[in-house]
Amino acid sequence: MKVLAIDTSNYVMGIALLEDGKVSGEYITNLQKNHSVRVMPAIQDLMRECNVKPAELDKVVVAKGPGSYTGVRIGVTIAKTLAWTLNIPLSGISSLEVLAANGKHFNGLISPLFDARRGQIYTGLYGYNEGLLQTVKDDRNVLASDWAEELKQREEEILFLGTDLPIHESVIKEIMGEKAKFAPYTSFNPRPGELAFLGIHKEAEDIHTFVPNYIRLAEAEAKWREQQNLK
Amino acid sequence: MSTDQIIMGIETSCDETAVAIVKNGTEILTNTVASQIESHKRFGGVVPEIASRHHVEQITLVIEEALKQAQVDYSDITAIAVTEGPGLVGALLIGVNAAKALAFAHNIPLIGVHHIAGHIYANRLVKELQFPLISLVVSGGHTELVYMKEHGSFEVIGETRDDAAGEAYDKVARTLNLPYPGGPHIDRLAHEGKPVIKLPRSWLEEGSYDFSFSGLKSAVINTLHNAEQRGESIEPADLAASFQESVIEVLVTKTLRAVKEYNVKQVLLAGGVAANKGLRAALDDAFKEIPEIDLVIPPLSLCTDNAAMIAAIGSVAYEKGKRSDYTLNANPGLEI
Ligand SMILES: [Zn+2]
């Protein structure tokens, strides 16, 4: 079983190749550079290094957001086109869930986050149960302060992680105190190898209708709906 | 093995997700288009983020439909041509990345092509090109006179300095409270009215092939405004007819002058505004008197954005040895 995993949903770009249960290749950068220019050459290079031809792939797994609208579309477009044209299954995994997997040894719940500007974050709540990552609270777009207030009510300790954590760390610390734990920097990049593992057992998507999980409506769409409600 | 050249074209630069397959640069095997226009109507124009989202929803469906209709397999495809620009960057990215994935999966050559070159080459799907030629390109984003001395060679001899013709149409349509997209509505209304309202023609400095439509657009708005203030009413059909007459007179006159100066054999009409009936009729009339020059006007389906035109320019680019690697990117401001 050969699985190609692609994550371009945020600044971290990750590609992994999983062969028979082991990660045979993994490529990660955390740069503010154009995914559209770099991701396909990266896929080509990694597969060439690992000596795997496109036709030998058995599955494609992609990080489906949330994240940068443009970024996540690049990965999703490549993943769905590859899976469809090679006639192999496609699975989409939450970009936050991939990041949450970096907290697997934490004894509590995990809140991975991406900055969503103006004090907001994309986040969700995850936890490991008998070695399996589970969603405790769905992915959302929320004010970091509101989220911290909500999590403060819980019994478990919460681990926060993500490259954007420094933007929101002080707000979270102030509200949650000792209940909030912060992961080390080395666990901030979502790992495409984890993405591949999470995708293996995930059910296959309908490829044609598969789209990113943007969380938010397009701005024009949101305004239009608001106006419709006012009428 | 077949010796036919089979090019798949992919076009997602604005609000149409389009895939086509063209044989030997001239024969359309399929020309599949999924239009988003209904979705954008409620916003009164194309919303880039929404266009990008729709492209992701449609792209594999449209590719599948095209392959099915053309009864072509990947092993038959010589190259994949995709619009790399100009256009909306987020929209272009979907076509570019889908094209890369297909090219990679099946080891097929990839070629990034120019959208306007595509519009010009839509004509080759109607009739073989004869050089030298002049192409009048008129669309929502472009108004250009392009001189071609041979295949794949484009020299812009005139272009708009402000609004594109299609943009002016849309803005005037909005002023007249016509629905989006405004161009066809103005065209229709113009035929019901008479060009009795005096509007300016923008010739610019002597000898220039450039265009300018923002003055005309303002004149239309002022005319309406002044009439309103005087409590008079203006017949919208007459205003549409007068506006259209001004646009067309400038387009046709400059084209005629370029045709003579550059001593061309052929004149091509290209771009979305080429669907305008008034413009088509005026060009027909003008060139009736010079039958030695071949005027080509593509059918409506090849004037608006489509991928057959992308495959057509892709065919020539392939012959000329152009190839793109996987660093190919969307280039919203690409020069021809
Ligand atoms: Zn166009």
N-end to C-end Cα span of chain B: 35 Å
CATH superfamily of the largest domain in chain B: ATPase, nucleotide binding domain
Number of domains in the coordinates of chain B?
2
- What is the class of the largest domain in chain A in the CATH system? Alpha Beta
Helix fraction of chain A?
Answer: 25-40%
- The fraction of residues in strands of chain B falls at 15-25%
- CATH-wise, what's the superfamily of the largest domain in chain A? ATPase, nucleotide binding domain
CATH class of the largest domain in chain B: Alpha Beta
CATH fold-level assignment of the largest domain in chain B: Nucleotidyltransferase, domain 5
- Sequence stretches where pLDDT stays below 50 over 5 or more residues of chain B: none
**CATH architecture field of the largest domain in chain B:** 2-Layer Sandwich
Q: Into how many domains do the coordinates of chain A divide? A: 2
Count of DSSP-assigned helices of chain A: 7
Q: How many DSSP E strands of chain A?
A: 10
Helix content of chain B: 40-55%
Structure characterization notes:
The complex is a heterodimer of chains A (231) and B (336). Chain A folds into two domains: 2-95 and 190-226, ATPase, nucleotide binding domain (Nucleotidyltransferase, domain 5, 2-Layer Sandwich); 103-187, ATPase, nucleotide binding domain (Nucleotidyltransferase, domain 5, 2-Layer Sandwich), CATH 3.30.420.40. Helices cover 35% and strands 29% of the residues of chain A. Chain A has helices at 35-49, 69-86, 95-100, 144-152, 165-176, 192-200, 219-230, and strands at 2-7, 12-19, 22-30, 59-63, 90-93, 109-115, 120-129, 132-143, 158-161, 180-182. In chain A, the strands form two sheets. Chain A has a five-stranded mixed beta sheet with strand order 3-2-1-4-5, with helices on both faces. A five-stranded mixed beta sheet of chain A has the order 8-7-6-9-10. The radius of gyration of chain A is 18 Å and the shape is globular. The N and C termini of chain A lie far apart (55 Å). With 336 residues, chain B is of the alpha/beta class. Chain B has two domains: 6-121 and 303-319, ATPase, nucleotide binding domain (Nucleotidyltransferase, domain 5), CATH 3.30.420; 128-297, ATPase, nucleotide binding domain (Nucleotidyltransferase, domain 5, 2-Layer Sandwich). Chain B has eleven helices and ten strands. At the A-B interface, helix 1, helix 2 and helix 7 of A face helix 2 and helix 3 of B. Bound molecules: zinc ion (ZN). Zinc ion binds next to helix 4 of chain B. Residues 115, 119, 139, 271-272, 305 of chain B line the site of zinc ion.
